[in-house]
Amino acid sequence: MEPVRRTLPPNHSPLLIAEQFGTLAALHPGRIDLGLGRAPGSDQNTMLALRRGPESADAFPRDVLELQGYLSGRTRIAGVRATPGDGSNVPLYILGSSLFGAQLAAALGLPYAFASHFAPAALHAAVRTYRSEFRPSEAHPRPYLIVAAGLAAAPTPEEAAEQFRAALRGRARMFLARGATLSDAEVDALLETPGGAQIRDMMRYTAVGTPDEVRAYLGDLAEQTGADELMLAPAAPAREDRLRAVELVTAPATAST
Q1: Angle 234-195-43 (CA atoms, 0-180°, nearest 5)?
Q2: For residue 28, what are the CA distances in angstroms to 3, 4, 23, 49, 85?
Q3: Taking Cα atoms as reference points, which of 141, 128, 151 lies closest to residue 208?
Q4: How many Cβ atoms from other residues are within 10 Å of residue 100's Cβ?
Q5: What is the pLDDT averaged over residues 54-63?
Q6: pLDDT of 257
Q7: Which pTM value belongs to this model?
Q8: Which residue, 171, 169, 167, 173, is CA-closest to 152?
Q9: CB contact set of 4 (below 8 Å; sequence gap of 6+)
Q10: Is-contact 171 119, C-beta < 8 A?
Q11: Which residues lie closer than 8 Å to 121 by C-beta, 6 or more apart?
Q12: 3-class SS of residue 78
């Protein structure tokens, strides 16, 4: 599978992105994809360090068009070309968690990846919008949809459930108790509050269980959304558990246990 490299245009200029990914494409021909998201993906101090501001996101559609021009060899800025990157045609994907991304991807005739692993509420509306408003482009005559899903896979249901619970606790500590030192029992109590319900809902689309159970869940999700591709986001806090979860799910079914 080709790796998808991700960047956030609000943090970088289109010319810089084109040259960086043009370099990657030159080093790894045919293996580089570029996902484009509108959100800054950082806190305000980091944005200041990058010399960017919240208003940078407003220019996202224009930045995507400018970036397309550099990568296609049809620059929109007279006399300015990406070196390297000019004419590299690195494949572009719009990343989103709202209807805005779906509408933009549809208008530009680009593939669309929806972040349902942390923003599930708009999933089905975004999918409908993307498909209904899609305008065929030279590179993409039909829509191409990627749906992201959380993942907590282990050899036993109990282990998978514990991974999922640990992931919930991690998000609760991040969003509801930042800076506080709380026991697992105290965090579990937080998860029973209205704020905790929001955290649980964020992980609505998470495949939890044994490899066979996870594959069945993901198959249903792909069928419900009509996704051309699923992107998995392992949820376990421990790196070794995340890697193991991916290994278990991607191994042949007969060898999953």
Answers
A1: 65
A2: 10, 12, 9, 30, 13
A3: 151
A4: 17
A5: 79
A6: 42
A7: 0.86
A8: 167
A9: 33, 34, 35, 93, 231
A10: no
A11: 201
A12: coil
Residue 88's closest CA among 47, 136, 32, 126? 32
Q: Under CATH, what is the fold of the domain 4-149? A: TIM Barrel (3.20.20)
Outline where the chain has alpha helix (H): 14-27, 44-49, 60-72, 99-108, 123-133, 157-175, 184-190, 194-202, 211-225, 239-250
**Separation between Cα atoms, residue 151 and residue 18, nearest integer Å:** 32
CB-CB contact of 77 with 65 (8 Å): no
Burial tier of 166 (Cβ tally within 10 Å: 0-12, 13-18, 19+): middle
For residue 93, pLDDT beyond 70: yes
Instruction: Identify the DSSP state of 141.
Output: S
Report which residue type is found at 227: A
Identity of the amino acid at 191 = L
Instruction: Kindly state the DSSP code that residue 58 receives in the 8-state scheme.
Output: G
Domain spans of the chain?
4-149
Contact 110, 92 (CB under 8 A): yes
Please give the backbone phi and psi of residue 132, each rounded to the nearest 5 degrees, phi first: -70, -30
Q: Please tell me the distance from the alpha carbon of residue 34 to that of residue 110, in angstroms, as a whole number.
A: 11
Show the tokens assigned to 24.
């990657």
pLDDT digits (tens, 9 = 90+) for 126-178: 999 999 999 999 999 999 999 999 999 999 999 999 999 999 999 999 888 88
Q: What is the dihedral of CA 212, 213, 216, 222, to 10 degrees?
A: -120
